[in-house]
Amino acid sequence: MRGASLKGLSVFNAVALALGLAFLYLPILILVVYSFNASKLVTVWGGWSLKWYVELLNDRAMQDAAWMSLRVGVCAATAATVLGTLAAVALSRGGAFSGRTLMSGMLYAPLVMPEVITGLSLLLLFVAIGAERGFWTVVIAHTTLTMCFVAVIVQSRLSGVDRSLEEAAMDLGCSPAQAFVAVTLPLIAPAIAAGWMLAFTLSLDDLVIASFTTGPGSATLPIRIYSEVRLGVRPEINAICALVIVAVALLIVAASLITKFAGHRHDAAAPL
Amino acid sequence: MSSRRIFAGPARLAAIAPYLWLLLFFLLPFGFVVKISLSQTVIAQPPYAPVVPLTGGLAAMRDALAQLDFGNFAALLADELYVRSYLRSLAVAATSTAVLVLIGYPVAYGMARLPLARQAVAMMLVIVPFWTSFLIRIYAWINVLQHDGLLNQVLLALHIVAKPVVWLSTDAAMYLGIVYSYAPFMILPLFATLAKMDHSLVEAAADLGCSRAKAFWLVTLPLSLPGIAAGALLCFIPIVGEFVIPDLLAGSERLMIGQTLWLEFFTNKDWPVASAIAVVLLAVLLVPLLFFQRLERRNVEGEAR
Amino acid sequence: MIETTTTTASAPAAASPLLRIAAVTKRFGDFVAVDAVSLDLAAGEFFALLGPSGCGKTTLLRMLAGFEAPDAGAILLDGEDVAPVLPHRRPVNMMFQNYALFPHLSVADNVAFGLRRAGLPKPDVARRVKEMLALVRLEGFERRKPDQLSGGQRQRVALARALARRPRLLLLDEPMAALDKKLRQSTQAELKELQRRLGTTFIIVTHDQEEAMTVADRIGVMDRGRLVQVGSPRDLYETPASRWIAGFVGDINLIEGRVVARDATRLTIMLPDGATTLTALRNGAGPVGAGAADGCIAVRPEKLRLAAADVAGDGAANRLAGQVVDVTYQGSVSVYRVALEGGLVVKAALANASRAGLPDLDVGRQVSVSFAPHDGVVLEA
User: Fold this and answer.
1) Residue A151 CB: number of other CB atoms within 10 A?
2) What's the predicted TM-score (pTM) here?
3) Are A237 and B139 an interchain contact pair (Cβ–Cβ within 8 Å)?
4) Per-residue pLDDT tens over the stretch C214-223
5) Which residues of A touch B157 (CB under 8 A)?
6) Inter-chain CB proximity A31 and B139 less than 8 Å
7) Per-residue model confidence as pLDDT tens digits over C140-193
8) Diameter of chain A by CA atoms?
9) Which of A144, A203, A271, B157 would disulfide-bridge A73, Cβ 3.0–4.6 Å?
10) Sheet with C31-41, side-by-side order of all strands
């Protein structure tokens, strides 16, 4: 909060914060630990072992699903980032134009719409136009879902950009489009990158919509995990889950390190 | 032209692609849902009739459309099963949202009171679990809650219970899963609002004679209402239609509406009924949806001049 | 009372002005920000638009830059109407109030920005950047980023950037608002020197009358959208056209009374006490008030002479008796507030020209205040 320097938290606050974070992280940590459990049973700790990870290497279905999810994620995230950024630019700088209300309505709705509804509706569309369900239908579905998140993030950042910078660019000879590319785009680049990452993660994670819109032989990772989980807890699942967690965590850490590094690059040069 | 107008021209062009995309892949599909909800189910491919022929002339289309009726809706509203499912969904969503507010507020408040540098770290800590797979996190809870899972082991070891408690397939497990999954959706908007709040207002209240509790009740809480509203809507609306969490963690005697829809669609292969369920669900959620739209528009676009 | 623009004799020969603003009006909804303003500027001038906040000066500036469009009237640059010309095509550059430096570019890249847009070849760009940075005394700062600069340094980069393209007209929007007083004063001097050296036409917008008077050749005073007086700093200060202008550009004493005599050059008023009369010169540019019954004489504090009441008069035409109620020592001057018989309180500023021989005029002393007729100005509006 602004306006005062707060020396430390009250006990209540500190406890609440600690409990909250523990609540969020505990199950994940337990899962990761158990993925190394040599024993198949949860009740017994059989020592550290990598055998479930080895089992994964033999699980073709799981590997195919993981590869599929990755491809879908990259395609959908990229498309969603492009469309979402365009939408954010239009809403943020376009003033009042006919269709604006409808567009912003369509843009914010998927943020909260229950996935069963969006999944079902997209499937019905694909069936009606006779599209073959598989990789591309899932990509389209995920793009539609995640572009809204990108748009919200980018729009939020865009509205904070100092307009006088764009005016200065125009004053110095840029057409509006050139001003946007030369000045505004570099400033919102972190938001666009964050949007891509969010879209990618949401796509990687989605079960319901993928289930509706995928076709035979094109299972994504969540679909495979789900079908396995329905049969009960199995240590191999622990292994693949742990891998996904670590992969995503690494991605996030890498991303934040990159942004921090980029920001501090010139600090060394300046005696103020 | 003013500088605003000069930018508006090209900016509007940017709207074309996303606009068309959303019309085609978001709005249009709803039309199909409505149309299918008015159809009947058949054993065929596709499993509904009538199929409106796109090539065959206007007369053929009109004939096909004439066969649509509201039979599915009548069946829905008549059958107790569906009505109970809707009501259960709303009840679960409302309860979960309330719990989320009660749990999320102290956490968000604690985060907002951290020094600025720590706030960024705290936010990262809250976001990271959210960005690791949602399904995996639910699965992690199954791991802990199962009959011979960690929770029971701990409780047995501490002699709090005599024999293992059944946690899975209960409403308790489901609520746990919901709160766990949606916590970031409640904490982050709340945190955003609380972090922006001017603490000197609370100090002014104290200066005028308010105890800490009173100052919170009279100043902080009212000012954080938009954040609470945003978080609540962000949680409530999707929870109503939740499928994965109740499917994996709750018992199967009573189903939430997302489960019912899934069942009708995948198990019974009854597309028309599933569509009808979706239409009614959408109608039920319309009011909160519109609230959310208005709130979001004010929050995001209101900041721009 | 008709408020018209009063231009005094020091207006430049407007044979073919660089900039002609012809009856320009701008409305925002019902609010009239700029109201039928007309102005001519010659090449090489340093012009200041002075006025309180909200008077429309920044709006007028933005219209010159192209960021707002006038609702009525025309703006002619070198005789050509600039209305259809978009900002990025005008030979006009602006220095923004918040500097608007591009945070992701270095100082050198900021200054080079406009040059690259203009398609200048690389070696020329490098040369011009070097030249500009030398001009604003920021050599060696090429690689720094804006967030590594102090406020004053950022201002200079903004200036260098705006001048890099050698515009016909440079617009400065309250350029020194963010600087502290000492820095402001030294920057004002530098700016004036720079303008003289370059010969570029500068238009500065400011609410600080001291600043306007320091840097500008001519000042245009604006109030609520109207241009109320244009003239050199001296004209504005010594012969303001209205009470409002008189009070805005420095301290002023306003003495009201009934007109008892008038001719082409002088006006005499009778004070309410019925006995004292004061005579002053008319403001040459003011309208010849046809038989207005009341008049007002304005005298600047430094033009009032104070003497102890018992000192023999020097025969000055205008004498008033009063009592000192307050003395403020302000370093270079001492300001005396004197309550005249009849209630009016006037301010007199006496230079502390020498440490010895400070007038022995304490609070409570009876004094006489006087001024020469040519030191007073008649204001009829």
Assistant:
1) 32
2) 0.81
3) yes
4) 999 999 999 9
5) none
6) yes
7) 999 999 999 998 999 999 999 999 999 999 999 999 888 888 888 889 999 999
8) 72
9) A203
10) C31-41, C19-28, C72-77, C80-81
